[in-house]
């Protein structure tokens, strides 16, 4: 059987197996973590009728959530898991920290977020700590479908990194290794630059003042093209976790002060709040040998 970890972090696999062999029956529930555990808007959900405390990860709130069957097989093969969630209705807000799940899902907020699913073995109803849980599935959200009051996530397992059709570091976005690299600084600065949002920014055009590593640094025209802007989380940020690709950038002067003007490929769900929202910018992915606009090999026939 799968390894089981108790609430204290100890391996309880043999204890669970002995419990079953003695003819006892567990109460079974599932835990769902969508996002990173330190993310203030991460989702800790369970299909149990009351919240479950699993000390290794935290407390999971009751939700109308279910999953499809998980395949069990030998070998390395990328699988998908469908998760269906019916969140409570919520009003529209212009803040990712207070926006409802349906609104965030519609904006693509959950796309590519990590998902972890555990199976919980409870000797008594509600006790998720004594024997703990086993890891059932893990992956990234590859697709989000929204219907009336329902969100369906298609989660692709972490093994999708083995689906590599071209040699590493050769052809732009078809290079899976490159896609999973961390954010790298644009040319001209030594580390990933942070910015304050300046008044006049809109959903499609940002006016930014660099705060680090080089305060008030001005990037050359289109030096940020192909990169991406990511809004920071926490505090009073209204766009925390939202990102967009950069179409162009240039110098803009307002009241004799120079700033970076950044045009976005994808409009933000709402305009950022000057003096509140902050962001950072990463350089474009490694382009390998520089073959721009090369189609995916499976479609280049």
Q: What characteristics describe this protein?
A:
301 residues, mainly beta, ten-stranded mixed beta sheet, 16 strands, 35% strand
Written account of the structure:
With 301 residues, this protein is mainly β. The chain has two domains: 4-162, no CATH class; 194-282. Helix content is 6%, strand content 35%. It has helices at 13-21, 101-106, 176-179; strands at 4-5, 27-34, 43-46, 52-54, 58-62, 65-67, 80-85, 114-122, 133-147, 150-157, 194-197, 205-212, 228-231, 243-254, 257-264, 278-282. A hairpin with a 3-residue loop joins strand 4 (52-54) and strand 5 (58-62).
- Average of pLDDT: 87
N-to-C terminal Cα separation, in Å?
45 Å
Number of domain modules: 2
Shape: elongated
Radius of gyration, CA atoms, in whole angstroms: 23 Å
Number of helices: 3
Write the layout of secondary structure elements.
Layout: E1 4-5, H1 13-21, E2 27-34, E3 43-46, E4 52-54, E5 58-62, E6 65-67, E7 80-85, H2 101-106, E8 114-122, E9 133-147, E10 150-157, H3 176-179, E11 194-197, E12 205-212, E13 228-231, E14 243-254, E15 257-264, E16 278-282
Parallel strand pairs: 3-5
Antiparallel strand pairs: 1-9, 2-3, 2-8, 4-5, 6-7, 7-10, 8-9, 9-10, 11-12, 11-16, 12-15, 13-14, 13-16, 14-15
Condensed summary:
It is built from three helices and 16 strands.
């Amino acid at each position: 059987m799968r390894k089981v970890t108790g609430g204290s972090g100890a391996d309880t696999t043999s204890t669970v197996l002995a419990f079953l062999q003695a003819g006892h029956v567990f109460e079974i529930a599932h835990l769902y973590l969508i996002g990173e555990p330190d993310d203030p808007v991460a989702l800790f959900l369970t299909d149990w009728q009351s919240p479950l405390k699993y000390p290794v990860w935290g407390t999971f709130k009751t939700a109308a959530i279910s999953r499809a069957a998980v395949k069990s097989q030998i070998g390395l093969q990328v699988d998908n898991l469908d998760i269906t969630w019916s969140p409570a209705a919520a009003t529209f807000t212009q803040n990712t920290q207070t926006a409802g799940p349906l609104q965030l899902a519609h904006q693509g907020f959950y796309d590519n977020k990590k998902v972890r699913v555990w199976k919980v073995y409870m000797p008594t109803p509600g006790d998720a700590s004594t024997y703990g849980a086993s890891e059932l599935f893990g992956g990234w959200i590859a697709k989000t479908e929204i219907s009336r009051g329902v969100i369906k996530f298609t989660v692709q397992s972490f093994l999708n990194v083995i689906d590599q059709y071209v040699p590493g570091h050769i052809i732009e976005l078809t290079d899976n290794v490159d896609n999973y690299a961390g954010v790298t600084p644009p040319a001209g600065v030594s580390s990933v630059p942070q910015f304050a949002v300046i008044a006049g920014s809109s959903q499609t055009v940002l006016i930014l003042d660099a705060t680090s590593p080089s305060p008030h640094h001005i990037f050359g025209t289109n030096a940020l093209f192909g990169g991406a802007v990511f809004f920071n989380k926490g505090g009073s940020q209204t766009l925390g976790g939202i990102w967009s690709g950069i179409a162009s950038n240039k110098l803009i002067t307002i009241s004799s002060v120079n700033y970076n003007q950044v045009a976005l490929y994808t409009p933000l769900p709402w305009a950022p709040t000057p003096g509140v929202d902050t962001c950072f910018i990463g350089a474009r992915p490694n382009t390998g040998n520089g073959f721009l606009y090369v189609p995916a090999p499976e479609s280049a026939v």
